[in-house]
Amino acid sequence: xxxxxxxxxxxxxxxxxRLWRVPYLGGLDVLQAxxxxxxxxxxxxxxxxxxxxxxxxxxxxxxxxxxVAPDGSIMLINADExxxxxxxxxxxxxxxxxxxxxxxxRMVAEQVTGRPAVAPxxxxxxxxTPQLARRLVTVHRLLIDPAASLLTRDxxxxxxxxxxxxxxxEERLSLPRVGRERAAVREVRAYxxxxxxxxxxxxxxxxxxxxxxxHLVRVFRQEVGLPPHAYQVQMRLRRARGWLAAGRRLAEVAxxxxxxxxxxxxxxxxxxxxxxxxxxxxxxxxxx
Length: 288
Known about the structure:
Blueprint: E1 16-22, E2 28-35, E3 40-44, E4 49-54, E5 58-62, E6 65-69, E7 74-77, E8 82-87, E9 93-99, H1 102-113, E10 126-127, H2 130-143, H3 150-168, H4 182-194, H5 202-209, H6 213-224, H7 228-245, H8 250-257, H9 262-273, H10 277-287
Antiparallel strand pairs: 1-2, 2-9, 3-8, 4-7, 4-9, 5-6, 5-8, 7-10
Helix pairs in contact: 1-3, 2-3, 4-5, 4-7, 7-8, 8-9
């Protein structure tokens, strides 16, 4: 069974695979692997396979033909389709895969369109879409980054799955018009301000707003100018600045503001404020 915690960040060893589950959409399996000699005989997965190939090339059989997925491409295996798998090059390749179920993809399609939908069908076994591949790689990076908040991970994953459905799905889906759901956005903003230090999922915010996660991110970004996870960072930093000015210890401020550790806090603080938390605190100490 997949793990429910983040895997280690050490480089993948030869023919090593790490499988775990993230809580989004009721539980989604994630695989990060380096395959060199590993070869897979014909098999099926109950779920879809969405895999990004890095640092080599993968060869596999699917839908009656042999395919090669080069570096930077996306492998797309529909649920219950027969496939194989091996490295196309001697040095192997990195395989970054998500395994959404048909029901999870259907839920994403409904979020995107705002109406009843079915799970998508991907007509291509290999897709050369560099921008979407980079987006999926970012998702995988965030999923193993202990400094990334739950809301950041959820938002990146939700956005990537929605992009897969709208960009590569056989049926072209139209997005509903973005309205001005100001009351819903105000409620989510107030929650993020009040609970700035708490870990909150995108689905929790969507239930609070009475909107789908996809639509919430769209209308929140339009109304506020930032997606919810970026606004959460701003609220955490706002609290942190006040506590630093009052003379509280840096490590204490970092954790209470909602950051995973002092390093993650310092990185975000410098990105947004322009100085380190220590410099900021010393400036107020001198004034006092």
